[in-house]
Amino acid sequence: MHTLFLRLEGPLQSWGLRARWGERDTASEPTKSGVIGLLGCCLGLRRDSSELQHLSQALHMGVRVDSPGVLLRDYHTTGGGTFGGRRHDGKALFHDNNYVGGVLSAEVNPKGRIYVKVNEATKLPETDVSNRYYLADASFLVALQGPAALLERCEQAIADPVWPYFLGRKSCVPSVPILAGSGDYPDLQTALEQQPIPQRWAEQIRGPIRLLIEVELGQGNHQNDAIGNAARRVFHPRAVREYFWQVPNLQPSINTLEG
Questions:
Q1: Which residues contact 126 (CB under 8 A, 6 or more apart)?
Q2: What is the pTM assigned to this prediction?
C-alpha cells in the first residue's frame, strides 16, 4: 500500500488530546487530528472544510518514537495588569473598547458586545492562567497509508504548502524538513520498521522503541482523535495498538565508569 513518511522533529511539540480550559495537555506522540491539521495547512483547508474529515477517514496512521523527548510545563498567563500606562476605571469593558488588558468572556450584552473579564476584587482586567505542556527535543516518524492519488497530493502540498505548518501548536515549528519520502509497503508496521533511524537518534537508543499503529475499532486502545467536525471540535474514536520494536544491530551501551 502506498505510504507517505513525515519526520516530526523540533525544539517543542504539543499534541493536545484531552485539553480542557486551563490544562492544555500534550499526548506523548503526534495525534491523528494534529497530523491531519498539519496536512490541512499544507493543502490550504480551512477549519470548516469537510475535506479534513475525509482525510481523517481515508488515511491510516502509524508512529515510530525515535526520541520521546522531555515533558515541559509552561505556566502561561494572558491579559491582566495594565497596558500603556492606562488604568481601568472599574466600569464594564467590551471587546471593542480601546485595549486596556484582560481577556474576553463568554458573556455578550443585548447589543452584541462581548464583555472583558474583570476581577471582582481588584476591579482590574482578569488574568487568565493556564498550564501548557510540550515535548522538548522529541522526534517521531509518522507513516500514512491510503489512496495513492491522495497521498501524492499531500506530498506535493507539503513540498509547497499554502500556509505555514507546525507541530501541534502554532508556536512549535519543525527543525528539519518534515517530508521524509514515500514508498509501497504491505502494512504500517513494516513501513516503520524498514525506515532507517537518523544517526543522531540511533546513537541514543538503548532498548526497544515504541510503535503505535492504527487498527480497526475493538483491536487496540481507544483514542478520541479522528476528526469529525474540526470547526466544532468534534472528534471520533479510533483504535491504536502499541508495539515495542527491538531495533536490529543495536550497539550495546558502554559504562565508561568501569575500569
A1: 79, 80, 102, 103, 116, 117, 118, 119
A2: 0.84
